[in-house]
Give the backbone structure.
Amino acid sequence: MSLNGQSSGFGLGRVKVQTTTNRGLPVEFYVDEITRHILYISDTAPPGIREQARAYRENVKGVLDAGIRQAIQSNHTTLIYQLRQAGMHEAAALVLASKE
Amino acid sequence: MAATAGICDTFKQEVLIGTHNFTVATDSFSMALMTSASTNTPSTLTNYSGIVGEVSTSGTAYAAKVLTNVTPVLNGNQGCVSFSSPITWTASTFTARSAMIYNTTDGNKAVCILDFGGDKTSSAGDFTITLPAQTGGNAIIRIT
């Protein structure tokens, strides 16, 4: 639709769907998605600002990656305790052996 | 056959009379998943009660997800709506082709139908939907 030469109307964005089999998504997926929500770099930004923003984005990704992995490990600690309390020592060992 | 993507026709009128408020902590919106058997279209789907071919919600494991509002912004000349994402159905096993967003605060009125471009299947894993950035030309719902 055009009002006084300016187009107008409703628009619908595209969603991205990712699925997994026999596991969850890797930490890297969440690091990328969270970073994208924190920091959007416009294609029309001046080159110098774009470069600074990209460098900042890499720093943010590093902080998020470390933080998410620590949070997962901390949650594993809770899970392992609860599984051991319930007498499920094999399950606790499986969680303990998992890398993320 | 699959649902047709688009902003629901009734939403276009309802948003003009203030039915839907996407501001944080106001109206609550949910997302339900549909299989390729759905025949819903933006012109006929007015309410969640009219959903066809919803992914089986037995045991509620795959039931609709409550979305977390992000207050709409003006980006350029476009009003942009978004929600927190990713939206994940964990430890799930199902196939979905499309999704519907609806307003649970106001009688489950339909907002839009989203198409995944094909069947997407999770198997004892995560089914994750990522919404686009809340910017002009990208946001999940935009008004120009």
Residues 47-85 of chain A form the longest helix (39 residues). Chain A has a mean pLDDT of 90. The radius of gyration of chain A is 21 Å.
